[in-house]
Every structure is written in structure tokens, then in C-alpha cells.
Amino acid sequence: MASSGSNTTNQDHALQVIKKYKTYVDMIAEVNIPDESKLNAAQEISENFEVIIVSPHYAGFLEFAIPRFLQFLRDGEPQFIAEGVVQQLRKLILEIIHRIPTNDHLRPHYKNILTAMFHLLESENEENVLVCLRIIIELHRQFRPPMQSEIQHFLHFVKNIYKELSNNIKSSFEVVHITATGYLAAEVNGGATTTPSAPSTTVLSSPNQATKTSGDLTMAAKGGQQQTVIPKAVTSLKVLAELPIIVVLLFQLYKQNVLGEIREFIPLIMKTIVLQPSMKARNAPSFNKEVYVDFVAAQIKTLSFLAFIIRAYQEYVNNFSQNMVGGMLGLFRYCPQEVAHLRKELLIAARHILVTDLRNRFVPHIDQLFDEDVLIGSGWTARESLRPLAYSTLADLVHHVRSHLPLQHLSLAVHLFSKNVHDESLPVSIQTMSCKLLLNLVEGIRKSDEQGTVSL
Question: How far is Cα 177 from Cα 2, in angstroms, rounded to an integer?
């Protein structure tokens, strides 16, 4: 009897706890409640969310809370001031939704959540959309929903962002197209760069909020206080860097349904990876290095997207091989030296692309990759951590195209990989690989020497 009474007491307590948090949800949904009180209610839910999850009434809480959360997000206006109470509230609600475990309790609600998240992408700010994207990824991975019209709409949305990238980025710095050899035109011929276009701006949610540049958090003065202006998601480089991951996931889930749509990304990818800030922009005192790092990150993520789909569209990609080669070489040359993780992603993407027959397109310019400042960069972290990956990637390329290399390029390969054999700081596996490659190069060197092209 005592045990039965204890269980009843525990159940009553659990029910009272859930009722309390349902009251907080009601406060958030209530129009007449002050925003500060709504934020406090959301913070209470967030701080005690683990208590809610283990409650026997958790499923009922989700059924009660999720429609109200989504309604609040749909009905509210997007905010672009980070310190604003409403912005903090909207972001916190999205983070709560993201924290909901993707199990059977969530299954009845995931379609409504996805619909709401896709809806928010086009209007919300950068911070909130980054959370939306994480929710979209997690729900698709876990529940694998059937193909819906939102998927097609999302792919069109992403394509439009790529189409507008060159215009949006001009609000931060002037961009030019890189040459087919991976250099900025001004470095090749000393020519003048193009005239900067008028910067694009993002309209904020109220007239007294300052406009802002894409991909940048700027400070706006209001009432003597500094306020952080958040970019709109459609102009955000951080958002653009996350979009390829979702497109790849959708390609995996709905391959037969989206083959044509994904094919249309390839010209956009090629136009994206050949963009670089002009020499004039780089040398300007106002050049924003942080925005540039975000820009390069978005480009490398885009190249990784290409690396993932390249086998399915290899013949079509071949039509854009000049842009692909120039863009990749440009990314190696101009990738910021201090951001080693981006160069690692670039090397991994390059490795996947170079295992295809398109590697032959790199033969005329392979000498650039023998320059370690281009391949690995001059940053200390990159030098310490990326040399094995870089050398193995280059060795694979050289091995497969060795019969097409002139003696001059074979000489560069011999010099680099002979040096690696004697470099005790490299793993033994890389030294062994270098020895094997040198043996494989002997035949090519002999043939070139017989032809009397160049002497070593």
C-alpha cells in the first residue's frame, strides 16, 4: 500500500511539473504577455528541459508545446538586433526545438516542424537560420521523410542564394573572377581591376535599424548603446557554408527525384569557386579579413559539394573543367594561412575530385601544386598537421598522370618526394609512399630523357 501511494504521489508531482511548463508555453503564445516575461518563461523551459524529457507526460507536453512554438515563430516578425528581447526569445525557442530528441515521441510532429523551418529560411536572420538548418538536417537524417514540395522549393532557394552571391558580397569587398591558371588577373598582367559596384544592403525589420553588409555582424548605435546587427540569412556567408551539407543529404535521400535539380547547381558551383577579392580590395585598409574567411569557407564547402556529386555528373562537369581547375588552384593559393581547418577541407575535397578522370585537366598546371606554399600554405598549424594529407593527395595525382608529365614537372616531383624521404618529421608511411612514387616515376623520366626534352 505504501508503495502504491508513493507511485501515485510521484505521478501527481510529475503531472504538476508538466502543467507548470505548459503554463510557460502558454505565456509564450499569449499575445498580451510582455516580451521579457515570455523570454523568462522560455529560459525556464530551456534550463529544465531534461526534467521535461524524462517525465512520463513528455509526449503530452510535446503535443501541447510544439504547435504553439511553431505558431509563435510563424506569426512573429524576424529580428535583426542581437540584443533584442524578441530575437533572444525566437532563437531560444528554435534551440529548444533542436534539443528535442529525435525519437518516436517527436515523429508525429516532425513534418510540421520541417514545414516551419523551411518557411523561416527566407525571412529570418543568420543566427536563427543556422539553428533552423541544424533542425532540418537532424530531422531528415532520423525520419527520412517522403519527397515533398518543400524540398524543391528549398533547392530553388539555395540556387538563388548562389546566383546572388557575387552581388551580395560586393557590400563587403570587390570580387573578380580568377584566371584559368588560378591567379588573380592583376597578378598575371598587372591590369587594373574592375570598378566596385554599389554595395547591396539588407532591409531590417524597422526603419530605425541600420542596414548591414552580408556575412558581417556590424554595430549600430541606438540611444547611446552599441547594438549588434545580424545579417539576413539570404545574404549570410555562414548560412551559405551550411547549405551544401543539406543539399548533399537531400541528394542522398531523394536522388532519383532531384537529379535534374542538382545538375543545375554545377554551373553555379563553378561560378562561385572562381570568385576572389580583387588586389585592390585586398590592399584596402577596410578589407575585412573575417568576412573573407567566411567567404572562403563557403567556397570550400561548395567545392566539397561538387566533390560529392562529381561522379554522377562527371561528363557535365567536364564542360566547366577550366573553371574547376582555376577555382581549385585559386583556393589553394589564396586560402587564409591561419585557418588550417579550411585548408584541410580543401585538400579532402581535392582528393575526391582528383580520383576521377578530371585529374588530367590539372596536368598543365600541376607545377603549382609542387609549390608547398600553395599546396600546404605557410601557416604553422597547416605545416605541422596537413603535410601527410597534402603529400599523399599530390602523390596519388602524380602517380596517375605521370605518363602525361613533361620532364620539367617530373623533375619537380622527384625533388619534392626525394626531400620527403629524408624528412624524419614525416610519418614512415609518407616516406614509404614517396619511395614508391619515385620508383614509379623512373620509367617516365627515362622516356622523357630519350626524347631529349630537358635534362635533370
Answer: 79
